Each structure stands twice: as C-alpha cells, then as structure tokens.
Amino acid sequence: MNNLLDASQTAARLPYGELARQVRALFADEAVQVPERLVQPLPGGGSLFVMPAFDARIAITKLITFTPANAGTARPAIQGDVVVFDVATGERLLVLDGPTVTARRTAAVSLLAAQQLAAVPQGPLLIVGAGAQGRAHLEAFAEGLPLQRVFVASRRVGSALSLVAHAKDLGLDATVVHDPNAVLPECPLVVTCTPADGVVLKSRPRDDVFIAAVGSFTPRMIELGPDLCRHCAAHGQVVVDTPEAQHEAGDLLQAGLEPAGFPTLRQIVLGEQAARGGPVLFKSCGWAGWDLAAARTAVRR
C-alpha cells in the first residue's frame, strides 16, 4: 500500500465533516498530548515549524515551512509534510501533504466553532482572502452549514474571481467585493484568512456576527482592527482555539486584550463555558492537535 500521499490523495482522506467530528472527539480523549511546537525563524522572513502530537494509537510530526514571500507566486506559502507513526510498532503509517492538512484541518476547526457559536449559520458568508485557506473555508462551510450566499474579497482580483467561480460550482450565490468593510453589516458569517500583514476588517459588525480569524499566528500579525476586537469582547464573546493563543493571537494582543482570559473552543464544546449572545470572534492560531485529528481521520479512511 502506498503511504506517501500527494495533495489530492490527502484531501480525499480528509472530508470536512469527519474532520470536525474528529476534532470534537479529540477534546474528550485524555490520551492526547501535544508538546509545544518549535517555530524557527529562517533567513529571508520564512519560518520552520516542527509540531509533534500523539495519542494512545498514533504519533505525528508536522514539518512545514511558512514563506510569506511566496504569496501571489506559483509556490505555496506553506510547504511540507505530516508524518504519521503507529505508537505500538513504530511503523510509519502515512505521509500526508502538509499544506493540504493545514488548510483542511483549519477550516474544519472553524466549521466546528461556527456550528457551536454562529447565530445565523445560513449566512451570507464573507471570506476575506482567496488563497488556500479561503478555498478550504468555503468548502467546509458549504458542506457543514446551510450556506446560500458568499462574498469574496481579496487584494488579488484573479484569486477572488476564481474562488467565486468555485463557490458557484458548489451551488452558491457568490460575488466579488472590493471593500469587505462595506458588506460586513450584511454578513453574519465572516472568515479572515489573509497573510495578516495589515488590518483588513475594521468597521462595526452585526450584533449576531460570527467571525473566524485564522490568518495571524504571531503577536505581530494582524487582520482585525483593534476596535472591532474590543467591541466583540465587550458586547459579545471572544473564543480562542487553544490556550497557546495567549502567545500567538496578534489580533487580540494588539487590541490590548488578554487571550488567556477568554474561553477555548474545547471549553465551549464540552460545556465547561457557556456560549453568550452578541458578536462572536473565534481566534484560531493553529495547534498540532488539529493535525493529530487529521491524521486520525486519514488513518480511519
């Protein structure tokens, strides 16, 4: 059996609904352990990520590079692999395509958060950023929510048009917008998945909005205006993906908010913290546990 999977083979093993269910199951598994990830800065502005995790059956290590300078070129910004081992035998079970795992597991986590927290799950959905994460979030939300309409904003018009065409292929009404802030009041579902090198959303959102912000994962990266973040914290709820967000959630840190004071998605899913009304901001920074959930899904299939 071939255990070295390319991007399309990896995607075929990771349907979004099953991924979201595996993420939920991960929360209740006491055998799961996720050591702190290593993020090594590289010359030229890139980073090397080494992300291990394991449970009672499998162990994984994600090895990827993040190269922001590749944005807008033929090379992906994220490259690398996820290696999956059998804990009992030490055998290598699978090598999954790293960028595919990253895109699909991130979108599945956002989907689970939306299923738990979104007041108006049918949308319209505003996607800001039309790269791999934008495409994955479109597919995940279209599969797991009763979505009907999508707006797409991107600095690269060609990418926005391509994502709109994909949305129409999925049976959705889709439109390119040049200023995401102009349509923010119309959208109860929002995903920001940009390179996070500057604020892309800053206007006042709806009171029933659900925002999944996935682009930034360092203290210096930012997508959301500080006033928007503070508004969600004061009038609704901020939820972080994991406790590690206290070191990584640039949007919140630059707004003067303390991520450690907000509930995690695990606490919401397990009922340890109650969801509240008002605008909801879900800040996702990434975690090797999500890659472990993806490996579980791939092995099962």
TrEMBL record:
This is Delta(1)-pyrroline-2-carboxylate reductase family protein. InterPro entries: NAD(P)-bd_dom_sf, ODC_Mu_crystall, ODC_N. One of its GO terms (cellular component) is cytoplasm. It comes from the Bacteria. Pfam families: OCD_Mu_crystall. It comes from Ramlibacter lithotrophicus. PANTHER family: KETIMINE REDUCTASE MU-CRYSTALLIN.
